[in-house]
Amino acid sequence: MDTVVQWNIRGFRSNFEELKLLLNRSQSAVVALQECRLGEGQVPPRGYTLLLPQGGSSGGEAALLIRNGTRFSEIDLRTGLHAAAATISLEKTLTVCSLYLPPNSQVSKLSLAELFEQLPKPFLVPGDFNAQSPAWGDSRRDGRGRMLEEFTDENDFIILNSGEQTFVHSAYHSTSAIDLAVASPSIAAECSWAAHSDLCGSDHFPIFLTFTSNFSSNVNTTSFNFKKADWNRFGELCKLSLDDSVADIEQFTSKLLDAARSSIHFHKGTKNKTRVPWFTQECRQALRERKKAQRKYFKTPSFENFNWDAEGANKLHEVLPNLGEDLHRRGEGAGRKRETAMCRLRVGHTWLTQSYLLKNEEQPFCYACDSLYTVRHILIECLDFQDTRRKYFSVTYLYRLFREVNPSPIVDYLKDLGVYGNI
């Protein structure tokens, strides 16, 4: 059975290793990704081809990964929405379109209709719709959810969701179902929908769309090994068999394949499994601990339980390993404003990097570095700030910055960047 995975990855680069691990375990034929934040020259995981939007959409917010050996034809979409689509040949042929609708963007039934009209049927549209409705398992209904209900009803499209929650909102300790899979009626009965049990480093669960045996891919069947072909014999056989007696395309294809089978060796095609050689026993243990912390959070949603008991993901442990150290030891006499700013930087929660939660906006992103805009990125990683940073300090680890560098150069660096007032 073939599987299509949909996932709001929340940064292709930042979750690249998690993606490779997911591919290694699922061996999916197609992966529909949203919120990729892809830059130019991005390399896909081994064994997969990366498709980006070719039409009016931009920013790399939606993408498709297609397993090598799977026949496909890319579709050039004419739309302002974030969408990437291809017609893909499994046992049957279907169109898969990855779609991302940002929460604050204006989306109408007309824009969706223009997109869906360009998709050859049967089609499957997995994506992050940012639409809430009890019709697919959410506890509330918003304007976009109401619009999407009307759109699917008017066009007889099927939403495959089973009612499971797909998104975890860490700021409000709530869950919702905003990742949907819309299908044309002819394939809806042959596809099952299930959410993964692990967030895999994102705040959206990966979703598995599994087709029945009728959609089974033939990637593993025998195929021609062209490196061991006898092309001279193949040419001779073609001259003998492909003459004026060939009446139609089916007969032509049959004779051509007979010539190929007689002159070209076969090899057993196998799925090009995505390698993860770094996945050691220590990684397995860390993964188990993360799942344990995740279950604890879902059982008792709270700020303390959201990754706070896992030291590997704990910002406090990262920037200040010795929790007994006096946080204000190097800030004595510096003034309340500077002490407050330094504490916010150590914890990793500043107005500059976290205000998007209060404003209900997308998380700030540094497109120059293809990375999320975090305290670590501003203080240590950003390439655009590198020359300015060297004037004040040269450490490359966040915990060393707060342990070894006096607050004054850090504050002066932020003032030089013009961001100190927004800490």
UniProtKB/TrEMBL annotation:
<keyword id="KW-0808">Transferase</keyword>
<dbReference type="InterPro" id="IPR036691">
    <property type="entry name" value="Endo/exonu/phosph_ase_sf"/>
</dbReference>
<dbReference type="Pfam" id="PF14529">
    <property type="entry name" value="Exo_endo_phos_2"/>
</dbReference>
<dbReference type="GO" id="GO:0003964">
    <property type="term" value="F:RNA-directed DNA polymerase activity"/>
</dbReference>
<protein>
    <submittedName>
        <fullName>RNA-directed DNA polymerase from mobile element jockey</fullName>
    </submittedName>
</protein>
<keyword id="KW-0695">RNA-directed DNA polymerase</keyword>
<dbReference type="InterPro" id="IPR005135">
    <property type="entry name" value="Endo/exonuclease/phosphatase"/>
</dbReference>
<feature type="domain" description="Endonuclease/exonuclease/phosphatase">
    <location>
        <begin position="95"/>
        <end position="208"/>
    </location>
</feature>
<keyword id="KW-0548">Nucleotidyltransferase</keyword>
